[in-house]
Design brief:
Distance between the termini: 77 Å
Radius of gyration: 33 Å
Keywords: Membrane, Transmembrane, Transmembrane helix
Organism: Mycolicibacterium arenosum
Number of helices: 5
Protein name: Integral membrane protein
Structural class: mainly alpha
Oligomer: single chain
Length: about 180
């Protein structure tokens, strides 16, 4: 796995965890519950971290698996918020709520997977550009090769096989 793909997988985990927590709290709030306390928020953060760690595994690179990780985080967070707030809505799952969680997970997974591919492509392109710029910078700062010839035309002329060499007796020697 390349460095770009490793970083993209880590970012995928971060986004899955964050979106899982946000949608769990949003679904809980839209269900009519009060704002969660600090203990409930800590439980949601832990559930989101579990979902993010599952999503950042190297094997996870497909949309259905990212959707499953998002739904896992949402359901765990939603259940824990319901239990922590002593709210009766934790056991009631309406069709509208399930559809809302599913739509949020599908849209988020599509965006996360698209962003992951784009991040990897952009990271590779930027890395190649950096390598080209470093190579150009190094070639611009090299010292010129000094020749031992006084005249550049003599240094550029080939010595072998042309018949006009600069060393040896003249071709037509007077006898």
């Amino acid at each position: 796995m390349t460095a770009a793909r490793t970083k993209a997988a880590q970012l995928r985990g971060v986004f899955v965890g964050a979106i899982s927590g946000v949608t769990a709290v949003a679904g809980h709030g839209l269900g009519g519950a009060h704002l969660p306390g600090s203990a409930a928020v800590l439980l949601v953060v832990l559930c989101s971290a579990v979902a993010g760690a599952a999503a950042s595994a190297a094997v996870v690179r497909r949309v259905p698996i990212v959707v499953a990780c998002l739904l896992l985080g949402q359901v765990l967070g939603h259940l824990l918020l319901g239990v922590a707030s002593e709210h009766a809505h934790a056991t009631q799952w309406s069709a509208a709520m399930v559809c809302a969680h599913l739509c949020a997970a599908l849209c988020a997974a599509a965006l996360i997977c698209t962003a992951e591919r784009l991040f990897a492509a952009v990271a590779v392109a930027v890395w190649r550009l950096v390598l080209v710029l470093v190579a150009l910078r190094d070639s611009a700062h090299r010292r010129p090769i000094l020749t031992r010839w006084g005249v550049a035309a003599l240094a550029a002329r080939p010595d072998v096989g042309c018949g006009r060499v600069t060393r040896g007796p003249p071709a037509l020697a007077a006898a």
